[in-house]
Amino acid sequence: MQDAITSLIGAYDSTGKYFDRDAMDALKSYFATGNARLAASSAITANAASLVRKAGSQLFEDVPDLIRPGGNAYTTRRFAACLRDLDYYLRYASYALVAGNNDVLDERVLQGLRETYNSLGVPIGPTVQGIEILKQLVFALVGESADWLGAPFDYMIRELSEKNI
To answer: Which residues form a coiled coil (predicted)?
Structure first.
């Protein structure tokens, strides 16, 4: 897993360039939000079970067919798997928040997820909706809606959403 610093160094090192103003600005921005990132991650960690429970409740209220017979969250096992997945997304979003980099999301969450869900018949739409709900709950918990706070959630939403080519 890379963080904002190692990614930046790697990008400049591979081209043999010294840091320019853009690189310095990116580092300043990362360090300026460092304490806020750690505080947000701590708040997420302390409230993870509640956030996942609330997100699941809201998702099932918004898409009740998921928990009806034949729905993808029908039966205790499937319901628990849905909540487990929401917990994964939240946990890895907190890692990406601290790192200031979304590489961990590609490496640990998103790589092959669409194919796995499609092969299991798990709908992507409600998954994306659940991640959006988590994002809103995190904004409410942390008390701000900074770009860096929503970035990991937005990245997962964008990568999982249907793409028209």
So the answer is: none
Domains of the chain, each with CATH number or no CATH: 1-32 (no CATH), 34-160 (1.10.490.20)
Query: Considering the entire predicted model, what is its pTM?
Result: 0.91
Rounded Cα distance, 54 and 133, in Å = 9
On whether 47 is known to bind a ligand per the annotation, the reply is no
78 annotated as ligand-binding: no
Q: Is 100 exposed, middle or buried (CB count within 10 Å of its CB: 0-12, 13-18, 19+)?
A: buried
The reply, when asked if residue 118 is annotated as ligand binding, is no
Annotated binding residue at 82?
yes
- Please give the Cα distance from 147 to 1 (Å, whole number): 21
